[in-house]
Design goal:
8 helices; Leucine-rich repeat, LRR (right-handed beta-alpha superhelix); Kinase-like_dom_sf; 3 domains; 431 residues; alpha/beta; Transferase(Phosphotransferase), domain 1; LRR_domain-containing; 8-stranded parallel beta sheet; Phosphorylase Kinase, domain 1; 19 strands; 21% helix; globular
């Protein structure tokens, strides 16, 4: 919920732990934020969608401040005052004009840093020296290299480096003990494979003029899904927005989805959109029955990298086995085809009666050369994400789950990536 300047000035927000002045026309932070009635309780400050270029030194005097969102402003430098905020652990400055990040701007308790869609060409070595760093979003910048210190970021679990200018994937990242979600598409090292998938995957083309557009079924960062009719056939159409997202470029998502092929655990592409009046790209897919629902909600500010499940969700052992086995088999096929999903989460799984499941959302997917040492390392990285998913499913199993499933989950989560099983073996174990 957004607040207003009028509420702030009238004292109506005294004692608030969270204040949102999103889109309030700010060119500076209001002084009322630093008065004792607010300063002593404020933990989350959202000033996104304004015209801010700097932050005041007084920010460092807020004793409980944990989270600052300042996306879609006019910053060109990440303010160094952030590094002097003793309790600050989440910093979100997406879609600014940031060209420079100094070591001094990084808070000592930094856990979650979002710098998506800026103009960064380099980052300080101090970034990998923040011992609590768990989630790092850097898609849509101009990075040609990453700090070598990131290879020591032992708590890092989620990394988004898509849509940059990296000529190679830093090998040290693939040895990180806890890294489970990696998006690295849309860089020069994967460009040729993406272009080949877009150019040579044989699917039918359907012209925009042949469609009847119906209601919106959903919307994500990269596009909007509509129900459509084409030649008396009901389909779903994902219309891509075109701009960079927190996961990367839409064309990288399209390339991976097209290359994924047909599998019972994947939502297939049944066609590509042709001749949209605004030149937008689109992919067709079958309509999923309304009995299918997302298995969980996305992570919260507190859970950081772990999904939020419905309290009442319980799975029978048979349904759990079918669901987990289907997902593992789908991922085995993806990796055989040189695709890392990058966002293996329950919130990207549609589940239906009896453990039926579809893995969707290829927004964070990356293409690579299969059959190489790097390919195996990328697969074992994603196996850790599967281990987290299996852990969450087992916690919601009706009755005591088999010991073999618990052992499989533990094998997927070992912190030495080379010791993890591959998806083909995981799928066989869940048959």
């Amino acid at each position: 919920m957004s607040h207003t300047l009028e509420q702030l000035r009238a004292g109506a927000l005294a004692g608030s732990a969270r204040i949102s002045l999103n889109g309030a026309g700010l060119t500076a932070l209001p002084p009322e934020l630093f008065e004792p009635a607010i300063a002593q309780t404020l933990e989350v400050l959202d000033v996104s969608g304004n015209a801010l270029e700097t932050l005041p030194e007084a920010l460092a005097t807020l004793p409980r401040l944990r989270i600052v969102f300042a996306s879609a402003n006019r910053f060109t430098v990440l303010p160094e005052v952030l590094g002097r905020c003793a309790q600050l652990e989440m910093v979100g400055f997406k879609s600014n004009r940031i060209e420079q990040v100094s070591a001094a701007a990084l808070p000592p308790r930094l856990r979650w840093l979002i710098l998506t869609d800026n103009a960064l060409e380099q980052l300080p070595e101090a970034l990998g020296e923040r011992p609590r760093l768990q989630k790092l979003a850097l898609a849509g910048n101009r990075l040609r290299a990453l700090p070598q210190s990131l290879a020591q970021a032992r708590q890092l679990e989620l990394l988004r480096i898509s849509a940059n200018r990296l000529e190679a994937l830093p090998e040290g990242l693939l040895r990180l003990p806890r890294l489970a979600w990696l998006a690295c598409g849309g860089n020069p090292f994967s460009e040729a494979r993406e272009q080949a998938a877009l150019a040579h995957t044989p699917v039918p083309h359907r012209p925009w003029t042949a469609l009847r557009l119906h209601e919106r079924l959903g919307e994500g960062a990269s596009g909007v899904i509509h129900r459509v009719e084409c030649e008396d056939q009901a389909l779903a159409l994902k219309l891509f927005k075109g701009e960079v997202t927190s996961d990367g470029w839409p064309h990288s998502e399209m390339a991976a989805w097209l290359a994924a092929g047909s599998h019972p655990g994947l939502i297939p592409v049944t066609g590509r959109l042709q001749a949209h009046p605004e030149g937008r790209a689109g992919l067709f897919m079958p309509l999923i029955p309304p009995s299918f629902r997302a298995l969980a909600g996305p992570p919260s500010l507190d859970s950081c990298t772990r999904d939020i499940y419905p309290e009442a969700l319980r799975l029978s052992p048979a349904a759990l086995q079918r669901l987990a086995g289907t997902v593992a088999a789908a991922l085995a096929q993806l990796h055989e085809r040189g695709i890392s999903h990058g966002d293996l989460y329950a919130h990207n799984l549609l589940h239906g009666p009896g453990g039926q499941a579809y893995l969707g959302d290829f927004g964070a997917a990356s293409l690579f050369e299969p059959g190489t040492a790097q390919a195996l390392a990328l697969q074992r990285l994603e196996v850790r994400a599967f281990g987290y998913l299996l852990e969450e499913l087992l916690a919601r199993c009706e009755g005591e789950p088999p010991a073999a499933w618990m052992a499989l989950m533990q094998a997927c989560l070992v912190e030495t990536p080379a010791d993890r099983p591959l998806f083909a073996a995981i799928a066989r174990a869940l048959c």
